[in-house]
Predict the 3D structure of the following.
Amino acid sequence: MVAGETSGDLLAGLLLNGLKARWPNLQSGGIGGPQMTRQGFDAWWPSDKLAVRGYVEVLRHYREIAGIREQLKNRLLSAPGQRPDVFIGVDAPDFNLGLEAALKADGIRTVQFVCPSIWAWRADRVEKIRRSVDHVLCIFPFEPALLATHGIAATYVGHPLAAVIPMQPDRAAARRTLGLQGEDTVVAILPGSRKSEIEYLALRFFQAVALVQQAQPAIKFIVPAIPALKSLIERLADEAGVRADVQIVAGQSHAVLAACDVTLIASGTATLEAALFKRPMVIAYNMNWLSWQIMRRKQLQPWVGLPNILCRDFVVPELLQDAATPRALADALLQWVDAKSSAPEKITAVQQRFTQLHALLQRDTSQLATDAIQKILET
């Protein structure tokens, strides 16, 4: 298996739980993170080696990433006892599809868990998917039909997070865990799970925090930080002058999302987690200028944030690139905060949309994915 970054590690860990229940003597190895290793996965390289986003950023790390992929390919194809019955690539399509193509050409069954977002951008990937994988495990319900039109076998398995996150999150319990009071107005700040994201987003997020605090000093701010990046986040909060006013915790992103009233959040899987917690949000993103210019030309629809894409509507605001100024971010956050008292129906409407989305994505993902993999192995 190969899973890149935090979200892939989480998805792969959930999948491994189902695979181990079906095959107790399962042996698994490759590239993974802590959620996978807790399931007995042998991580030959850590998943954060692949946690790079954007064309320019990838180029800076290309030699190292390409070297890891070549070493992994050779190990799976050549090393005694390492040839797998099936290879599962979890997300990370830029890394996995090329590896899967080489493995499939050599007779190894290949599965891609999470369909590359050909419906959002980079439709040119379809041919590469067909050439690279035997089967795709899809986490969104419309994907199998889309892939079928291109002759690609696929199964909808639901989104694992929809089963993990309760339909009715316990806000009070989450606040007690984090030392927050029940009557507090709480804003969660999630500037990303990659170092490159935090470098581009965290400072402007914290500058927005300073502006929100000027308007409403009683608001509590909390940041769930990946432990390895916590010191960087603390430094950027200090640079923005808000370190003493922001509670930065190691991990606990689900507790933070359950506890908050609204979140300022980097575009990515975390936005779907926030939607499953039924939280209003402001989605933002900023990256290298050249990477942005390349990506926007490949964009196939008007939305970037997953909740908006899946709802086919701008349910929550998106502030991207030059639009993601501290002032704009602060104003968007304050609109949600003010709506608690001035327009509660606005928040209720968002929560209803996200509840419908949650129900649509809720399936026994581990069971469905394991069933699909077993069928592949039996053919």
Remarks:
- The chain has a mean pLDDT of 88.
